[in-house]
């Protein structure tokens, strides 16, 4: 097999999966619809990836804000969940806070636990569990992006399959008309 033949199949697969933005001169209505569906799938996957990146950047920004004006306090966990835990803590000036949005990085907390938290002294509602940071957000956000692209890839394969079946049907009709 020649080198050109070796690359022929992957290139044809790539061309069938990656959407063309421009219209082909003899494009039918169904081909136009499938092209737009393909573009929509890629845009949706890009938006999921952007969301994941923004999630990590937001966590990093919150950490920087806390580190600029850091206060440390002992807190009681009032309610615990995998995504949100409610806490209550008292600052050194004896003001009790119960952050409205809960605590950042709440995994592995149970109601009734006593933990140490780091908070922004300028905005005590911005609180994280001590010794936890934005690096904990990388794996979940990356997983969401990867799963998004896997789903998009499967959808693109499905669209390519439909397009090939439609092309075969069109070829059969054209052959029957010529006979």
TrEMBL record:
- Keywords assigned by UniProt, alphabetized: Membrane, Transmembrane, Transmembrane helix
| Presence of keyword Transmembrane helix | yes
Q: Does the keyword Transmembrane helix apply?
A: yes
Q: Which residues cross the membrane?
A: 39-60, 137-162
Superkingdom of source: Bacteria
**What protein name applies here?**
DUF3592 domain-containing protein
Q: Give the organism the record lists.
A: Mycolicibacterium moriokaense
């Amino acid at each position: 097999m020649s080198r050109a033949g070796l690359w022929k199949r992957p290139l044809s697969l790539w061309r069938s999966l990656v959407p063309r933005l421009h219209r082909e001169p003899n494009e039918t209505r169904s081909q136009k619809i499938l092209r737009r569906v393909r573009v929509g799938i890629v845009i949706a996957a890009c938006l999921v990836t952007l969301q994941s990146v923004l999630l990590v950047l937001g966590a990093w920004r919150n950490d920087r804000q806390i580190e600029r004006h850091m206060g440390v306090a002992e807190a009681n966990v009032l309610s615990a969940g995998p995504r949100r835990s409610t806490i209550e803590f008292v600052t050194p000036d004896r003001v009790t806070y119960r952050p409205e949005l809960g605590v950042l990085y709440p995994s592995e907390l149970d109601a009734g636990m006593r933990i140490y938290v780091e908070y922004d002294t300028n905005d005590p509602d911005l609180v994280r569990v001590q010794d936890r940071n934005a690096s904990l957000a990388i794996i979940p956000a990356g997983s969401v992006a990867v799963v998004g692209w896997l789903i998009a890839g499967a959808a693109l394969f499905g669209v390519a399959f439909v397009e090939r079946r439609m092309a075969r049907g069109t070829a059969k009709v054209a052959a029957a008309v010529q006979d």
